[in-house]
Amino acid sequence: MNNSLISRFPHLRQDFAASLVVFLVALPLCVGVAVASGVPAELGLVTGIVGGLVTGLMRGSSLQVSGPAAGLTVLVFEAVKEFGLPVLGAVVLVTGLLQILMGVLKLGRYFRAISVSVVEGMLAGIGLVLIAGQLYPALAAKAPDSGLGKMAGLPGAFLDALGDGKALASLALCAGTIAVLALWKHAPAKLRTLPGPLAAVGLATLATLVLSLPVATVEVKGLLGAIQPPPLSAFADLAGVGVIGTVVAFTLIASAESLFSAAAVDRLHDGPRTGYDKELVAQGAGNALCGLLGALPMTAVIVRSAANVQAGARTKASRVLHGVWLLLFAALLPGVLAYIPIPALAGILVYSGAKLVPVGALAVLWREHRGEALILGVTAVSIVAVSMFEGVLIGLALAIVKTAWEASHVRMEVVDKGAGPIEAYLSGNATFLRLPKILDSLESLPQDRPVRLNLSGLHHLDHACRTALENWAERHSAAGTEPVQVTKPDEPARATAA
To answer: Each residue of 312-335: b (16+ CB within 10 Å) or e?
Structure first.
């Protein structure tokens, strides 16, 4: 690199080196995510290219890298199976436009308010379905459609594989890939300059060629052959309830995953902080273009982003250059994809899926915040048992209920001096969620004694509680005692007669 170029771009040397690392990490992941999503492998590369050349050039987060993500694999697979590949392009396009709109309306920052337990539960559920789903291609078998079906069918698939040489060869290759990924951090430092995913796929490909293993490999169509913009007829399907639900799920999950990734990447470096609304616009622009090209949806991907930071990237040039390398590979060397064994890609995704399941964090969460651990677990199980969209909605509903319950703290203090009126003081937030507790305490007071109910300590009194307290005061006063005296917030005591 000449001196004038270096003076104009002082960090170009670091960014150039980092871009090569990110490219080598992204290449097998783009292909693996595409194959697992049930679309041509080249479409994963298209999304990676757009993530580098379009989203990478835009403002937002300077160092995080975007592309097809394992977190959306399950949802994309379901959408392609149910609606078809042309409709997927329309869904991704609308998702991108919604993200741009949310960014323009400055809604990006509000995604940080989503319960972390729901997001972790969502990723855990995706991880479990991803692991179960990818074990079938590892066994050279066809995966069932539903998440529960995938889980339930695994014992039978393993038993069937025992007498099948092709299935055993495929399983061995997948297991070997996972072993390389897990042990790569212990390899000599010089070897570790090669990213683990690329090393694992490279070794699996070499083993397949040398040993002539009878395993399935990636089908290649060529970059231009794989790109199929959605026809106008595909946009007519957007009126369907199922497609609308898929658009909402894509938008929420892709946006949340990207912005959570941005927050994580910001903790890894000392450079400029993420502009969340600008990042949402950048993600939306990338997804809109991916939709027009009929490619996969994109999110910011923490694995690639962390590799970018750790490789010494200083500016957005590294992620743009990684998109250039992906484009050159897809244009000049697409035939190389045909040698990659599918069980090796399955191994990469099984390993990625396992990292999405926070087993250690869940144990700590259970000891310290059992309510949050319950939300995480229920969200994950719901995604496996029902579907991605419904599982996330169930998790969000649980988080809202838990927050409302915790926010409605109410305390009742009763002062009974043995003679004269009983003093009952309520403080905190009186909502319908705490109404049974309040009424139980009031109804336990003696019926033959006058009561002074002091509500001046309440910060909030909802309509349901107000009505219930008035009804209780009337019932108590009707027993022949003095009318209940109620002191409302900022009001003097007044008698409530039957």
So the answer is: ebbbbbbbbbbbebbbebbeeebe
In contact, 449 and 476? CB cutoff 8 Å: no
Compute the chain's Rg from CA coordinates.
Answer: 29
What is the pairing mode between strands 66-67 and 451-461?
Answer: unpaired
d(CA 40, CA 488): 67
Other C-beta atoms lying within 10 Å of the C-beta of residue 433 = 18
Strand order in the sheet with 410-415: 410-415, 422-430, 451-461, 484-487, 494-496
pLDDT score at 498: 39
Strands 451-461 and 484-487: parallel
CA geometry: angle at 478 spanning 476 and 479, to 5°?
A: 70
Question: Which H/E stretch holds residue 299?
Answer: strand 299-300
DSSP 414-431: EE--SSSPEEEEEEEEE-
**Phi, psi dihedral angles at 218 (to 5 degrees):** -65, 135
> What does the pLDDT read at residue 489?
66
Segment 168-171 long-range contacts (CB within 8 Å, at least 24 positions apart): 169/213, 169/214, 169/215, 170/137, 170/138, 170/139, 170/140, 170/213, 170/215, 170/216, 170/341, 170/342, 170/343, 171/138, 171/139, 171/140, 171/343
Structure token digits, residue 283:
């993600």
Q: Rounded CA gap, 170 and 176, in Å?
A: 10
**Which among 469, 328, 431, 384 has a CA at the least distance from the CA of 129?**
384
Q: How far apart are CA 372 and CA 115, in angstroms?
A: 9
Amino acid 171: pLDDT: 92
Q: Report d(CA 400, CA 402) in Å as an integer.
A: 5
Q: At what angle do helices 41-53 and 12-36 cross, to 10 degrees?
A: 150
Q: What is the mean pLDDT of each run of 10 residues along the chain (498 residues)?
A: 57 83 85 88 93 91 87 86 92 96 87 72 81 87 79 87 88 93 88 83 92 86 84 88 89 85 78 86 96 94 81 87 91 85 88 81 79 86 79 83 76 83 86 82 85 86 84 80 77 49
Q: Which residues contact 249 (CB under 8 A, 6 or more apart)?
A: 75, 388, 389, 392
Please provide the DSSP assignment of 270-291 as one string: SSPPP-HHHHHHHHHHHHHHHH
Please, are residues 238 and 244 in contact by the beta-carbon 8 Å criterion? yes
What are the structural domains, with CATH classification, of the chain?
8-357 (no CATH), 410-496 (3.30.750.24)
CA separation, residue 392 to residues 44, 186, 389, 402 (Å): 25, 37, 5, 15
Burial 124-163 (b: 16+ CB within 10 A, else e): bbbbbbbbbbbbbbbbbbebbebbeebbebbeebeeebee
User: Scanning the structure block, which residue is given the tokens 């949402």?
Assistant: 280
User: How far, in Å, CA of 192 to CA of 12, rounded?
Assistant: 23
